[in-house]
Amino acid sequence: MKTRLIQMLALLMSLTLTACSNNDNTTMETSEQNQEYAEIGSGAHLVKFPENLEEGIIFATYDRGDIHEDIYVNNKEAIEAAQNGEELPSGTVITLVGYRNGELDQYLVMEKRTGWGSQYSPEERNGEWEYQAFTPDKEVRPDNIGRCFSCHANQERDDYMNSMDQMKEFDLGEISQSNNSSTETTVAAIHTGDWKVSEISAHMNGSKDANKEESSLIDDEEKAKKVQDVLLTMYLQQYKG
């Protein structure tokens, strides 16, 4: 009798635990179903027009009929990450500058920041990317940003980028070559080692008759400073012209 009573109590406890477990699972499923997510694209306001856009790197271009597009990335670290098979870092900004018939038409910007997109449902979000569209005047353009998410959703394996292949193939050497060429001018190529710089008396300044007897040669240190001043003046005049 005692043994049977113990068996009945054990069966009752087992049934009670099973019921509790089922009840907990039902509560969790109901909670997940009732969880509210933000409307896709509602975080577009976080994306501002990229500062110093022109200082970015054009890593891809597209031409389709009367449409031309330049794709910028804001830093070379993003390119390096892509070429190393890594995810693009937080802070990456990709900007599509679109032209139609040779006229500026639009700016489309996608920006990645840690934590962005967490308010969206897992099925809809594009990782940590947000999107925004701008007019040629750099004003926010009324647009259905949700379309951007749909367009990029099938590129999850490429960190939601449609131009990942072009980024991987971009030659980073082009950047250093471009930087070097931008700092080299015809003025910098002038050989000044054998220049003789002399100081002319104030009353002779501007006179065509100034000669060596009425001037004195300047030492190397002061010569270097004056040569720099002359070259700087020539450089500025070059751009004023």
Keywords:
36% helix, 241 residues, alpha+beta, two-stranded antiparallel ribbon, 5-stranded antiparallel sheet
Radius of gyration: 34 Å
- List the uncertain runs: 26-32, 182-189, 200-204, 210-215
Quick one: how many beta strands? 7
Query: Which class do the helix and strand fractions yield?
Result: alpha+beta
Main beta-sheet strand count, sense and barrel state: 5 strands, antiparallel
Strand percentage: 15-25%
Strand and helix order: HEEHEEEHHHEEH
Side by side, the strands of the main sheet go: 1-2-3-4-5
N- to C-terminal distance? 113 Å
Query: pLDDT average, as an integer?
Result: 78
Shape: elongated
Helical run tally: 6
> Approximately how much helix is present in the residues?
25-40%
Describe this structure in words.
By secondary structure, the chain is an alpha+beta fold. It is 36% helix and 19% strand. It has 6 helices and 7 strands, in the order αββαβββαααββα. It has a 5-stranded antiparallel sheet. Strands 6-7 form a two-stranded antiparallel sheet. Strand 1 (57-64) and strand 2 (67-73) form a beta hairpin. The longest helix is centred in the first third of the chain and has 33 residues, at 2-34. The radius of gyration is 34 Å and the shape is elongated. Mean pLDDT is 78; it is low at 26-32, 182-189, 200-204 and 210-215.
